[in-house]
Amino acid sequence: MNSTVNSIEWLIDKTKKQASQVNNSEHTEIRLQTLEQVKSLLQWQPLSSSEKQADRIRLLARYKKENWTTSKIELKIELYNSIKITIPYIIALNNNSSLNKLLFFCSSILNSIDMTKGDSFEAFTIEDVNNSFKDFFRIEKENRNPLFEKCYQKIESLHQKMISTASQV
């Protein structure tokens, strides 16, 4: 990985030298921007999920300092935290693998958020959310166990958060 980043840095330096020798063509600028983005992503991928979340929080602070719109990065941070906190509660209720669809959906959103740097992430629809939570609501309706009340509350709260996020993305 380190040699790949070094190769990208070499290409960036080479492109900068070419740009200074030529009349700073649009093609060279685009190439340079692309290489910078590739380098950034290569450095991003090996970070732990906690390090990536910390980077998103630092990015939020930078956005606020620059008076930029923060709504998307705030959504991303809050959704990530909500899912991370709720997954153990889903697992606690996952009798006979009945909530695997919901666990997969949550994991895919976490992965999507972790794979993208900045304030963007793969959108999902309200229909996606409701389909993923369908088994949970069926189980909850059929045999809600008072001993797991905290689990139900956490999962219901995540459902509302995801519905809210889906309508804003």
Write up this protein.
By secondary structure, this protein is mostly helical. The protein has two domains: 2-44; 49-168, no CATH class. The protein has seven helices and no strands. Helix 1 packs antiparallel against helix 2 (26-44) and helix 6 (126-143) runs antiparallel to helix 7. The protein starts with a helix and ends with a helix.
Task: Give the arrangement of secondary structure elements.
Blueprint: H1 2-21, H2 26-44, H3 49-65, H4 71-93, H5 100-115, H6 126-143, H7 149-168
Helix pairs in contact: 1-2, 3-4, 4-5, 4-7, 5-6, 6-7
Query: Could you give a short account of the major beta sheet?
Result: none
**Form type:** elongated
What Rg is obtained from the alpha carbons, in whole angstroms? 21 Å
Q: What is the number of domains?
A: 2
In whole angstroms, how far apart are the ends?
33 Å
| Strand/helix succession | HHHHHHH
Mean pLDDT: 86
Low-confidence stretches: none
Helix % is over 70%
Given helix and strand content, the structural type is mainly alpha
Number of helices: 7
Strand content: under 5%
Number of strands: 0
Q: How would you summarize this macromolecular structure in one to three sentences?
A:
Helix content is 79%, strand content 0%. The protein has 169 residues and is mainly alpha-helical. Helix 4 (71-93) runs antiparallel to helix 7.
